[in-house]
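Hello again, I could really use a second opinion on something today. I've been puzzling over a protein and I'd love to understand its fold better. I'm sending you its amino acid sequence along with the C-alpha cells. It would help a lot if you went through both lines with me. I've dropped the whole record in just underneath, so have a look.
***
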Amino acid sequence: MTEITERIRKLLENQESESYSRYDGEHPFDVYLGVDQSGRKSLALVMNARRESVTSTKTIDAQFYRREDGQLMLCFSLVDDQLRDIFYKFCEDIIESSRLHHKEDGFAPVIERWETWIKFFSKTSLPLSENEILGLIGEVYFLQNVMIPKFGQDIALDSYIGTDRAHKDFEVQDTWHEVKSIHNGVRSVKISSIEQLDSELVGNLDILTFDQSTSTYENNITLNSIISNFRESLDRKWQLKFDEKMRKAGYIEDERYDEYNYLFVSLDEYHVSDSFPKLSKSDLPNGITKASYEIDISAIQKFKAVK
C-alpha cells in the first residue's frame, strides 16, 4: 500500500457518518473523502460543470448531486465494503490522475478514468489465470530490462501496446516484439493469433523462461513485486499511465497473486522474417479467418539472436 493509499484509508475509516473532508487544497478540483448518508465510504468531486453520463456497478454507486451553491458533486460510494482495499486504490488513482486536468475539462476525464476501473468493481474473482500471471510478469520484465535500457522510459512505455489489445506487445521505430513466457522445460510456445507474428516488418519473438519458486528465494518474482518495484522506478506521469496499462491487462494489486512465485531463467530472442515458421494471412485458405498454433522451439534455433 502506497503512502497516498494509506492516507486515503485513514481518512475514510476515521470519518464520521454523513461527513466529508477535503483531501488536498492544492488539487485543481475540489476533492472530498468521507461517508455518505447511507454510511458508505465515498469519494466526491465538486465543480461548476455540466452533468455527464456515468455508470454505476453493483459494488460502486456513481451519482451526480446538485449542491445548494449550484455546483455539481460527483460521488463514488462503495456499496460492498469487502472491496474497500480496491476502493482505496481507485480513490488514489482518480485523485492523482485528475491533477493533470483543469476545471475547464469538466467531469469527463474523471468518468473516462472510472470506466477503466468498472470491471474490477463488477466481479469479485479478481486474480488472473496462472498463464496470464506469468505472461504479464514476462512483459513487465522485458519492458524493465530490455526496452527501457535500450530506448529510454518515454519511448519504451509508449511502445508497450499489448495491453491495448494490439496484435504485438511492443512496436517501436521500424520493428516489433512479441513476448512469450514459458515454464522451464516447456518445448513449444503458443501463438494466440495469426497477427502476432505476421508483419511486413522484421520483428522479434522474445521467449522468457521461468522456474516455479517459493517466497523463500532471494530473487523470487511475483506479479505484485515486479509491478510494484518497476512502478516505483517511473516518473509520476508514467506511474499513472502504467497503472492504466496494468488495469487494461486485468491487474490490480491483490495478495492472492503472491501465491505464484517464479525465478527468471533466461531470455532468448528470435528474429521473425519471411522465412520464420509462422502462419500469415496471405497463406490461409479461403474461409479461415482466425487460428492459433504452437511453435517447436528446437525448430527455430537458427533464427536465434546471438548475445
Q: What stands out?
A: The first strand starts at residue 19 and ends at 22. The chain is about 30% helix and 25% strand.
